[in-house]
Design a protein that fits this description.
It is a single chain. The protein is an alpha/beta fold. It has one domain: Rossmann fold (3-Layer(aba) Sandwich). Helix content is 27%, strand content 31%. Strands 5-4-3-6-7-9-8 form a seven-stranded mixed β-sheet, covered by helices on one side. A two-stranded antiparallel ribbon has the order 1-2. The longest helix has 15 residues. It starts with a strand and ends with a strand.
């Protein structure tokens, strides 16, 4: 399955999908909705694409002006696809792939915090507690977008504010804003 970068420097370029059934590709409609709602925040941002799949979210962010994107993915097939997509777009200087589970990566990461975090865990294994741990890596006033199955309550965490919830049939998005420190 192919995925289109929607806009920006690489707009209309085609990248490969994750190539595995263990990940679920986010639809172009939902990706477009995310980027339309956070548009101005992307320029110059440090972005984390957790549970990266094909890397489409992080690569879309780079295309739209993000300074850097870190991709965390555990699936080996998906890791190869992400690496190929980064090379295809010639973004090796701004795109960095970590081949690990998000949980293990969280246990070892000691780098700079992020302006924007995309968390799109597999729907068959949502790992919401791990996804919510990512909130600790946001800069003050940073934004995290969590994709989760559209049924059930929105996951919340004390101290952070859910600023928006959007539903797209079987998928839903929760937008979290880290309070100023």
């Amino acid at each position: 399955m192919n995925i289109r970068i929607i806009a920006g420097w690489h707009g209309s370029r085609i990248i490969k999908g994750s190539g595995t059934r263990r990940t679920h590709p986010m639809s172009e409609r939902i990706r477009g909705a995310i980027f339309n709602s956070i548009g101005r925040e992307i320029d110059g941002a440090r972005v984390l694409d957790a549970f990266a799949g094909s890397g489409a979210l992080g690569l879309e962010a780079i295309s739209r002006g993000a300074k850097e994107a870190v991709f965390v993915e555990r699936d080996r097939v998906a890791q190869k696809v992400i690496a190929k997509n980064i090379a295809l777009l010639r973004e090796e200087d701004r795109a960095h792939l970590s081949r690990a589970t998000v949980s293990s990566w969280l246990g070892t990461y000691d780098g700079e915090d992020f302006d924007i975090i995309f968390a799109d865990p597999p729907y068959h294994d949502p790992q919401l507690s791990t996804a919510l741990e990512l909130l600790g890596l946001l800069k003050p006033n940073g934004l995290m977008v969590l994709s989760y199955p559209g049924r059930g309550e929105v996951p919340t965490e004390l101290g952070d504010v859910v600023v928006d919830i959007r539903s797209y049939g079987d998928a839903a998005l929760a937008f979290y804003r880290r309070k100023d420190a």
